[in-house]
Amino acid sequence: MGHHVELSRFVDAPPDRVWRVLTSVDSAPQILSGVQSVERLAGVGYEVGTRWRETRTMFGRAATEEMTVTAVEPGRHTAVEAESGGVRYRTEFDVAPERAGTTLTVRFSADAGRPGRIRRALTALVAPLALRATRKALHQDLDDIAAAARAGI
Asked: Which residues lie below 8 Å from residue 30, measured CB to CB, with a gap of 6+?
């Protein structure tokens, strides 16, 4: 049982700048308005295996999750995964040159595996609200990344 969101946005900045902003884990609280703090747990720079604890505001409350980089194609693609409450989350970003800028695409998925009947019923009730909130947060992340890349951060 899974849920998916995909969004794309044009960024008026070159792909290398977008990639640099996207992979600046330690600067996330200064770049992403929804991120309150980041604590690096493993890895130097940005590579497969880099892990950090990220505290984000969701539904008006602070939520902390441990994130792990699971895929990197430098300058082009990355995937980050987290697991919480029996749900596996995967966020993928693609950076592609377009005209005089970049198309930045994010794909988010949440997979609860094989939940029982009660959990399926609860998920059916909560999922639409959670997907709207996730879509809104991802849209804001894309806007924040675009602004930082345009500014040359």
From this structure: 153
Give the burial class of 73: count Cβ atoms within 10 A of its Cβ; 0-12 exposed, 13-18 middle, 19 or more buried: exposed
Residue pLDDT, tens place only, 71-88:
999 999 999 999 877 788
Which residues lie below 8 Å from residue 150, measured CB to CB, with a gap of 6+?
A: 11, 12, 13
The structural domains of the chain, with segments of one domain joined by +, span: 2-151
SS3 11: strand
For the segment 47-57, what is each residue's pLDDT rounded down to a tens digit? 999 999 999 88
Q: 94-116 burial string, b = 16+ CB within 10 Å, else e? A: bbeeeeebbbbebbbebebeeee
Which CATH homologous superfamily contains domain 2-151? START domain (3.30.530.20)
Are 118 and 153 a contacting pair, CB within 8 Å? no
pTM recorded for the entire structure? 0.84
